[in-house]
Structures are given as C-alpha cells and as structure tokens.
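Model it.
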Amino acid sequence: MSRPSFQFYHGDWRRNAKLRRCNHLQRGIWLEIMCLMADEDEFGILRWPLADIANAVPCRIAELRTLVEREVLKGADRGETCRPLIYTPRHAGKDGTPVTLIPEQPGPIWYSSRMVRDSYIASIRGKGSRFGESPKAAPIQRTGDGPSASSSSSSAEESTTSAALAAEGRDAVATLANCPHEQIVALYHELLPQCPKVVEWNDARRGYLRSRWREKSKPNGSTQGYTSVEGGIAYWRRFFDYVGKSRFLTGQENGRDGRQPFVADLEWLVRPTNFSKVIEGKYHR
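Modeled.
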C-alpha cells in the first residue's frame, strides 16, 4: 500500500550539495522520482529499469543518467550490481552497530537513501533503539531526502514502561519484522501443489512477501492481525487454503482464445494488487 504523504525536508533539499549541481529540470525529475518511490510497496525503492522510470516521469534517459552520475539517484540498472546501503546510527555522540538497509544485489533497483533510512528509523522508534538494546528489526518497511528525523523516544514514555514489557514488545516487533520465508514457501507447496513450484526466491520476491507478512500482522478492517510467528503461519495457511478453492487461480478454468489456463504462482499472489484482489474474493466468483 502506498502512503498518502511523505516528509519533505525543504532546508535539506536546498542545502544538498549533490542536488545543487543539478539544473532545475533535473531537480524536478528527482522530485517526480521520489513521488514514484513513495507509491511503491517498498517505500523509497523502485525496482524498475531506468527506461521505465524515464517513461513514467516522463523524461530523457540522459537526464536520469546525470542524476546517477551526480549520486542523487542511487542504485543499479538491469545487468549491473547495486552496492549495499549501510546505515550507522549515532547516540550520545557514539557510533552504533552498522545496519545493512539494502544488501548488495543485482539491478534493476533504484532508491533514495534518505527515504529508506527514515523508514528504517520510523520502524524502530520507541522499540528499544539504544545501543545495547538493539531491536532485531529487519531492514526496510516504508518513509523523505536529507538528514534523518529524530529516532529517540521520549524519556517520559520510557519511564512508564517496565523492563519486562519493553523486552516483550521488542521481541514481538523483531519477530514479526523477520518474515519466515521458508515456512511460507513450504506452506504454499503443501497446500497448492497444482500451482507452479518456487524454484528461485530472489530479493524482489522476498520483498513482496515480507511486505505482505508485515501488512497482515496489523489490524485492518475485519482482519485482527497477528502478534506471533505461529499466528502468522496460521493466517497464511488459511490464505493458501482459500486460494486453493478458486478454479481460476488453480488453472481449472479454460484459457481465453484457446490459450493455456492461468495458474497463479507465489510471486503473483503476494504482489500488492493481486493479493488485495484475492482476499476480496475477486477470483472466487
């Protein structure tokens, strides 16, 4: 799901030395790209080839390459390798343990380091983020471009929470932040043997599933969410069981114009739009 807004630090925008090397057209293009990144399921990240971004803005690829050369737009195109994005938190003037927000991986992947960093900080704010109490939060959830927002919770909030409750809360957040990919893939194979088998579970596919896992862990409408891995696995078991009752999703409906029947695979099921349509019953009529 995309957010209705994202933070824009106008002072940092005007002071950004790399951005000041760009002309007004290129700055406008970068703002359009940030809006595209804000609409993505992985906030701040576009897994699109550079040509697709040029079509979406729209602009010339040469302008995008200038943004890449000036290190405003970061990442890698198809056939290239993206270097890791590593964030080192600071507290009381000391460096904390570095966190890999985006691991080294093949392109296409483009990102705003500010948006990705802010999203990570927002995901751990108030969850024991001091050094020595590090939450085992996984990288990237989804939030603007310049220095990061404040990541410390107030002392008043900390004083009202007992050590036991704080530890329990950190453990729950850390547990749900780490999607159990292997268990869910195994469930998919067990309950949907008629669907294509997962042969390769790459970073892009892991990103889709991780986002759906976190998304469904939170209460939303008639869905209560889940607070443990066991509860999450139970939800996904029900989901795959429901998928198995759709003749269309399991290849039991004739294809149009003599084509082969459609059969949903796991990547298709966990893409945001498809996932929403499945749980809304669009393929069970």
